[in-house]
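FORM 12-B: Structure-to-Sequence Request
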């Protein structure tokens, strides 16, 4: 029951707000009228709008009741004062006695000390914090729920108005959102710099009519849309039965939300307060997003994501805005998405100039594909999907993990210089493409490339790689929705060998587990997946897939040379058992009358420290070894390669690690075992030079790294570099990097 004392009528307030919007005023004048109107309707002496100037600073942008001179003067940091607290927490504060409230900050310029009660609500749109709306009264009273709801509904409408640029005007702080330059810091997913124009993977829905006149009609619209979505989800669910458990779980969650009474009730209430159906959906979505930012539990976050997706579906239905907005993809698209699957990314292919994701991780499938396609990628770019609009100019610095959205002229100039320098370097690399990677003191290093997709193969020619030192076969499994068939795989491997045109391709058998989870395989809930049931452990325990893959490889190679490498071998018996599987498969193929490969080389990846200490016999028997530096380093330092906090903590050029690698080199020299290094460090010029200096003679890397590494090796005397490394070690240095960097600087100058 409404309190008879309370005269606030949210529908009347919204109707007046709509009239203001229809008037021919703009900017500051419009905002001033709005604050007066809200103060009147809320029966409060004060109404103020604070908007964010930057991520951390709020500014008083309009007020009814406070000192007008403090407008655009009074500022506060996020978390500072009651207004700052509302902003930081994204939650309302409703207090009868503001000055005695914890966190209250007195701002003499506003003259607010005479006001006792305070109600502040966040102005936010889809998790994006825009500002705070405040009402204050002289008498000490707590605002009733009905008033709080009314103010929240108004804040929602203000957020929509800001989105539409309704505050564009003379006030410096009132520039529309989405027109200012924005710098976002994320993390590197794939190096490289590129500029282009924004292409949103899922364009945002814009609510153009937040206020509605006929609540009954809006309720019907909402119910119809929800019903349609419910039917759609049920259909999908029926189709998914018998499919993946995870997919069903997601759909079940969808259905649960779609049938949730609380969710419906809240939206219906907002409609009865005067919001349109779409505005009511978006208000709920904003609340869910705000919660999402605070929830740490991954499972709960996923569920909130589901709710968010469901709201998007509803919004698209209600506004009639589909995924296809009719916008044309720019000629230089930079893809922006919250997250994206590998198959979707492959659909875009090489047309993309760069990719910016709000989520994602270095080891995510999307990142692996982006790397394979050599497209600069920035991940963890917080808020990018809220900030960017289709067609915005954007510059992506994949090396630093930085994104410049709508950059100003100085940034554009500096960035263009960077791109030009890269292009210049690229020309230099092309000119040495067909030359061997021989150092100044006459040591030649074989440079090979890592690959995993058919799309990588053209780089074999373009980069000047001597072969494929690591073909990650799991990528073909990861980009599919179901287990590939043997015939598909064998056709694919045959095409890879055709494209390699006689150059060696080292096929690594399926390396799944850890972060690489196949969508169609039952997920294993392991406490520590990097140390868990992965790679060859899966292959030997459940040999069906391994056998199928080996058969496919043997058939593809028919009459040609085949090189197979087993991942993650931790003890020699694993290699012996895997090799026996290959022998068995070969014998079976012969019985079936298939042509055998002309020659077969079999090797192992050295990715756990244990294998470096395997018996001599193993080193003598194994056909070749390849150091998987990414995994080896994480186990050597006990530092998770996927954990951004610890990933960079330990330097590859740390003396302990280099000494360990050198011991592996020496063991292989004694046993005459061919050795290569195929982790990411092989593609970093300084690291690659040090690896060569301690005796590695084959390095396998991303194709784009071959030019820079070769160019570095050409300028170097590896013998001298080795002496520098030893000197640093004798000096007791933790890492040889400082001395090596100094030395390389002199070498570059004298070259
Ligand atoms: C490695 O661990 O260094 C490696 C090359 O394998 P992946 O990165 O695919 O685990
Ligand atoms: Mg590995």
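FORM 12-B RESPONSE
SEQUENCE OUT:
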């Amino acid at each position: 029951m409404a309190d008879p004392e309370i005269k606030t009528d949210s529908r009347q307030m919204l109707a007046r707000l709509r009239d203001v919007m229809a008037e021919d005023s703009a900017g500051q004048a419009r905002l001033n009228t709005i604050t007066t109107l809200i103060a009147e309707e809320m029966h409060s002496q004060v109404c103020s709008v604070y908007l964010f100037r930057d991520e951390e600073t709020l500014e008083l942008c309009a007020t009814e009741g406070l000192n007008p001179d403090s407008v655009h003067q009074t500022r506060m940091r996020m978390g500072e004062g009651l207004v700052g607290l509302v902003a930081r927490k994204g939650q309302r504060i409703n207090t009868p006695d503001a000055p005695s409230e914890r966190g209250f900050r007195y701002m003499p310029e506003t003259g607010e000390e005479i006001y006792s009660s305070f109600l502040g609500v966040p102005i936010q749109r889809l998790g994006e914090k825009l500002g705070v709306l405040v009402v204050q009264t002289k008498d000490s009273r707590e605002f009733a729920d009905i008033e709080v709801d009314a103010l929240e509904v108004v804040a929602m409408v203000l957020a929509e108005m800001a989105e539409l640029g309704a505050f564009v005007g003379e006030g410096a702080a009132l520039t529309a959102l989405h027109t200012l330059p924005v710098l976002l810091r994320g993390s590197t997913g794939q190096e490289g710099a590129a500029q282009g124009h924004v292409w949103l993977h899922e364009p945002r829905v814009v609510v153009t009519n937040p206020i509605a006149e006929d609540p009954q009609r809006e309720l019907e619209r909402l119910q119809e849309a929800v019903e349609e979505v419910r039917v759609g989800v049920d259909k999908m669910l029926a189709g998914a039965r018998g499919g993946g458990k995870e997919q069903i779980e997601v759909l079940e969650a969808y259905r649960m939300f779609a049938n949730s009474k609380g969710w419906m009730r809240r939206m219906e209430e907002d409609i009865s307060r005067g919001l349109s159906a779409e505005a009511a959906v978006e208000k709920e979505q904003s609340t869910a997003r705000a919660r999402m930012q605070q929830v740490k539990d991954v499972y709960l976050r996923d569920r909130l994501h589901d709710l968010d997706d469901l709201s998007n579906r509803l919004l698209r239905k209600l506004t009639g805005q589909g995924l296809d907005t009719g916008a044309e993809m720019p000629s230089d698209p930079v893809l922006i998405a919250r997250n994206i699957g590998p198959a979707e990314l492959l659909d875009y292919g090489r047309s993309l100039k760069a990719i910016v994701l709000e989520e994602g991780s270095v080891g995510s499938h999307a990142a692996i594909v982006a790397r394979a396609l050599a497209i600069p990628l920035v991940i963890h770019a917080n808020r990018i999907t809220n900030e960017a609009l289709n067609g915005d100019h954007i510059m992506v610095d994949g090396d630093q993990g930085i994104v410049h959205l709508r950059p100003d002229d100085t940034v554009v100039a500096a960035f263009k210089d960077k791109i030009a320098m890269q292009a210049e370097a690229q020309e230099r690399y092309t000119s040495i493409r067909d030359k061997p990677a021989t150092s100044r003191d006459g040591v030649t290093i074989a440079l090979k490339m890592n690959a995993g997709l058919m799309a990588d193969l053209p780089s074999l020619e373009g980069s000047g790689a001597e072969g494929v030192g690591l073909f990650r076969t799991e990528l073909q499994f990861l980009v599919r929705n179901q287990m590939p068939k043997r015939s598909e795989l064998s056709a694919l491997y045959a095409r890879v060998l055709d494209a390699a045109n006689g150059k060696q391709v080292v096929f690594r058998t399926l390396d799944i587990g850890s972060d690489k989870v196949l969508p169609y395989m039952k997920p294993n809930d392991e406490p520590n997946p990097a140390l868990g049931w992965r790679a060859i452990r899966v292959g030997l325990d459940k040999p069906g897939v391994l056998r199928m893959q080996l058969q496919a490889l043997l058939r593809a190679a028919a009459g040609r040379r085949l090189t197979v490498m087993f991942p993650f071998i931790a003890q020699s018996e694993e290699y012996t058992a895997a090799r026996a599987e290959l022998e068995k498969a070969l014998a079976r193929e012969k019985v079936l009358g298939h042509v055998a490969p002309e020659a077969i080389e079999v090797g192992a990846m050295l990715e756990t420290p244990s294998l470096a200490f395997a018996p001599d016999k193993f080193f003598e028997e194994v056909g070749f070894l390849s150091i998987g530096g990414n995994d080896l380093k994480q186990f050597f330092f006990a530092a998770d390669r996927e954990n951004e906090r610890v990933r960079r903590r330990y330097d590859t050029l740390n003396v302990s690690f280099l000494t360990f690698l050198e011991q592996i080199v020496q063991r292989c020299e004694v046993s005459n075992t061919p050795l290569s290094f195929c982790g990411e460090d092989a593609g970093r010029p300084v690291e690659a030079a040090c690896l060569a200096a301690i005796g590695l003679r084959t390095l396998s890397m991303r194709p784009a790294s071959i030019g820079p590494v070769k160019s570095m090796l050409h300028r170097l005397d590896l013998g001298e570099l080795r002496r520098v490394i030893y000197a640093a070690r004798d000096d007791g240095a933790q890492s040889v990097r400082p001395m090596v960097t100094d030395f390389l600087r002199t070498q570059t100058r004298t070259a």
